[in-house]
Amino acid sequence: AEEKRSPVILMISEPLQRKYSYFNFKRLIGPIRDMAEESSVPVVLHLDHGKNYESIIEYIDSGLTSIMISGSGDLEKNINRAKEITEIAHKYGVTVEGEAGAIEGEGGLEGKAESKSKQEDIEKSYTGLEEGKKFVNNTGVDSLAVSIGTSHGFFKSKPKINFTLISELAREIEVPLVIHGATGLSVNDYKEIIKRGIVKLNYYTGLITEATEEVKRLLNTRDYISFTELNYKSMQAVNKKAKWLMDVFGSASKG
């Protein structure tokens, strides 16, 4: 991010923490926050897909500067829960991302898994305009994750993004809009999504896959390579991809 002079959001996933429960990710937040505060570009430390109330509060106490509250199926329950957590988070100066509409697939987990979501299921889960407005107006969240055709993981076929819906949501909803499952879209899709009003794009699967593919390449071309070098080379691959994304998303030179 500093090389590209780009603001950046670093996310920790609650589902990933549950998967690797033997390691307490919260212990890393303090040192990472110190580095973020020393950075020459704006850095946000964000909890992705927070579902458990107690865990969300613990992450706030640990020093994260932003949280995302995963929604359930019931809108009223979502609103009541998000409102309560948002009020607490704001007392600590922590921003909150809510969710209206169901974003298919499970976010924040590892692997080059294809999305199992069918296009018709994704379309049924689109964020409704009135649903989104009601959620934002009754919770006080600072941004809203919306369902517009993306899904966590890689797509089995070309995704059908509802660009018209993005424009309608951006016009009527007063907070910044977010999409999850940004891996696998075309450069033109990214540019059109941003043009129509999406402000934050969550991109994970593609980054972790860059690391995996680099490790596979090295193991297939070397008789011996140390774990230290594997780790370093995979980090370089992620770094290269992240810088490319900053150029594509248009955040480069804005930090």
TrEMBL record:
GO biological process terms, semicolon-separated: carbohydrate metabolic process
Matches recorded under InterPro entries: Aldolase_TIM (IPR013785), Class_II_FBP_aldolase (IPR050246), FBA_II (IPR000771)
This protein's name: Fructose-bisphosphate aldolase
Protein species of origin: marine sediment metagenome
Pfam families linked: F_bP_aldolase
MF term (GO), any: zinc ion binding
